[in-house]
Amino acid sequence: MAEKSASEYRGSIHQQQKELMLDWYQRLDHAAETGDPPTVSMMISGNCVELLEGFGAIPLYPEVNALQLAIRHQSLEPILAAEEMGYAGDNCAYVKADIGCMLKGITPTGGRLPKPTLVLCNFVGCNTYVKWFEHVAAFTGAPLYVLDVPFLRGDQPSQADIDYVVRQLKEVVLQIEMLTGRKFDYDRFRQSVAYSSEVEDLWSQIKHLAKYSPSPFDAYFDAITLMGPLYVYRGKREGVEFFRAALNELKEKAQAGNGIYEQERFRVVVEGPPPYPYFRTFRDMFASWSAVAVASTYSTVGGLWEFGFRHDPKCPFESVAMHMLAQNVTNRNYLQRYDQIRRYVQEWKADGVIIHFVKSCRLFSAGQGDMRDYFTKQLGVPTLYIESDLEDPRYFAEAQTKNRIDAFFESLEHAKHTAGHAVFERSR
Amino acid sequence: MRIAAGVDVGSTQTKAVLVGANGDGVNVLSRSLIDTGANVRRAAEKAFDECCQAAGISQSDVGFVVGTGYGRYNISFGHTQMTEISCHARGAHFLCPGTRTVIDMGGQDAKAIGVGPSGEVLDFVMNDKCAAGTGRFLANAAEVMGLGLDDIGPLSLRATRPVKIATVCTVFVESDILSYLSQGKRPEDIMEGVHLAIAKRTLSLARRVNIEPLITMTGGVARNIGMVRALETVLGQKIVVTPDAQFMGAVGAALFSLEKLGESFESGVWRDHAVSSGN
Ligand code: SF4
């Protein structure tokens, strides 16, 4: 990110994070030139990145490319290119930005991106994934494999669901063996699953640090920064090292009573992806009220670990399947998401919930009106509902968004002093 | 007497209000209203200036100024800013004690605010990013019909068979109206259709906060009696409208200013007050 918000956490892990991500992009650039290492396009949500380690392959994340573009204020050009080609205004703008980039030869860092060895659609929850990856495969000419991951219908997936996904994962292994001519290294895969489990444990501990008051980091905005290494390096030693350092750094901060503001005034839970094209502006709207996000659902898109789930090297295939089926926010149902947010509000001691409706993303946003009702009317939790987009800058109305956020915090402030009609002090 | 001001810079009009507190309680001293126009900063200055003149005081007599409305950050002389959501709730609580729901309809915003027993905002919802269901929608409809904004309300009260306006789009409503005109529908029935369309949209907005009596309507559109009646029809409840509902945001801002000066008070009444000459 080029610009820094006043409230942004920048410890030594920030620099390490940058280096790790740069290194990943360099490896992708190298792969574009030499074909090595093999690369597999996949989605962030509940993926099976550990499988790639068995081939020494690395992931290619169209979503990360799209959000990187947006955060650098470069998403509109590819979106328009895709629309010119016929993509509709209502299509997910992540898809349009990604396809537009292919059409225009744009990459977020300026380096090259390889033609993937395999386009692996790890379909969990969002059916846009399927169409998106069909198009990626068509544009790149790479082979496509669509994993069919059933929705989570009950609290836990059935054994039949798990077996069904495991069978497909094994099929993917055969596919990659065929495409790369490399033999799948089961031990390396199992080791990767073990690394993931360690990373998940560290990440979960970091998330729980936000229970401190003041919270040592923002579990929405700063968590997003940490999510890069989480997705790219989850099943690797580097990931374990990075998250161990991050935990130590943040734990020290928490124990010393250092928050991200001189005085933390509000604690909120944020639901929904951020408006990446206005990431900093959006963050500043929270910062002007010294409001910190103590938890967020978006940071559990890749995996839901703060409530206990870990990958298990004793049964690597099954635990990857379990993760895909049940342990990421996108494949779970709405009531489970309500419950996740409710726990955040209660256990992380939040003053309210902020729902960011994203026009692009039906998966996240359909039903958020009811969610708002549930929290305000049934639980009595102050809840703000705002709308824009995660990728398309045309849907962000700065004055309107700020107005709603200001009004929300004014009302929280007022609630703290109901008896006395306090006039709200706000930093200007 | 301590004097405080509220300036509400809206998308269409800018309102200023002065309030004063002495032993008797809190009075509204004066108010002014001007078109916002392109120069927001100047509009705020002018409204404030006129308001002071109407009260016969100098600007330096005003102890504190709170700015509100979309242009609040452009008020160079303001001491602090608050959103119009808090201000409308505060103003309505003061002038219409017992208010539990505020329906505010302005030039490009429609909002519903749940108000607590001490005038605090409990919950609020606003229209999304388009102008459907706002003053702009009514203004467009009036223009297509060749009617003045002040005429459409009384006219619509004469309707006997209101037409159905399906669209809530501020632009597409024109073609709906033109087609009804070409079918020979009566202007009052068309305008009543327009009012009902907005009222229904506002109702679905307002339902998202708990609609509880007393319901007070604020904002410029509250001057339109047709809109008030249409809202009452769809809500099935009475709505309270003060004669100067469009000043409610500025009143709330002025009350917050007064609190800032250390005054505390419960509620008041809209007393006789000086009126500026307007534009
Ligand atoms: S619709 Fe949402 S979940 Fe699906 S691809 Fe787009 S942003 Fe991702």
Question: Can you give a write-up of this model?
Answer:
The complex is a heterodimer of chains A (428) and B (279). By secondary structure, chain A is α/β, with parallel strands linked by helices. Chain A has helices at 12-34, 49-53, 62-71, 76-85, 93-104, 128-140, 159-180, 186-209, 221-232, 237-255, 279-287, 316-326, 334-347, 362-365, 368-378, 398-416; strands at 39-41, 58-60, 118-123, 144-148, 266-271, 291-296, 352-358, 383-388. Chain A has two domains: 5-185, Rossmann fold; 189-425, Rossmann fold (3-Layer(aba) Sandwich), CATH 3.40.50.11900. The longest helix of chain A has 24 residues, at 186-209. Chain A is globular. Chain A starts with 11 loop residues before the first helix and ends in a 12-residue tail after the last helix. In chain B, 54% of the residues are buried. Chain B is built from eight helices and eleven strands. In chain B, strand 6 (101-105) and strand 7 form a beta hairpin. Chain B is an alpha/beta fold. Chain B folds into two domains: 2-88 and 247-277, 2-Layer Sandwich (Nucleotidyltransferase, domain 5), CATH 3.30.420; 98-241, ATPase, nucleotide binding domain (Nucleotidyltransferase, domain 5, 2-Layer Sandwich), CATH 3.30.420. Classes of the chains: A alpha/beta (428), B alpha/beta (279). The interface between A and B is medium-sized, with 30 and 28 residues. The structure holds iron/sulfur cluster.
